[in-house]
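Hi V.,

You were right to ask for the full record rather than a summary. Here it is.
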Amino acid sequence: YLHVSEIFEEAREKYKREYLGSKKAQELIAQGKTPDPEQSWKGFKGKNFEKLIFYIIQTELTSDKVKCILGASLGRKKLSEELSKVHRNLIVRYGKYGILPDADLVIYEPPTCKVMGIISCKITLRERIAQTAYWKLKLASDPATMHIKGWFVTTDEDGDLTSSP
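Predicted structure:
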């Protein structure tokens, strides 16, 4: 996992070739549009980075006292009773409305469905670190969610966290 950026770089050209030959790309061409393999690659890479972090966390969790789930699973229309409680315990209130924070991964305690933390997984920083900080501040502003920790996982491919001597 320390070389994830190198692995993605090796896969990049193969992915682009396969994308241009895909049904979706062919449909775009038939509509007179130009498929953008680079844009498709960014989404593919981001989703797979999230899955990699999820896999790493899953392999490290050795107890049934803590679970990690993909945050997108809380957006489904039909939730199990357990995930419905997790959803409720993560809601950020905006007046009379409730919104789920941007969370790629959610860590919670199954017996109580208490959310312990959320993880944002991003390949590049750019404005995304501000989004993560925003959601942490929103969670911290409510007594029901102030205990939830926020983590940011990045490959920092832009080098924003690296200092030059």
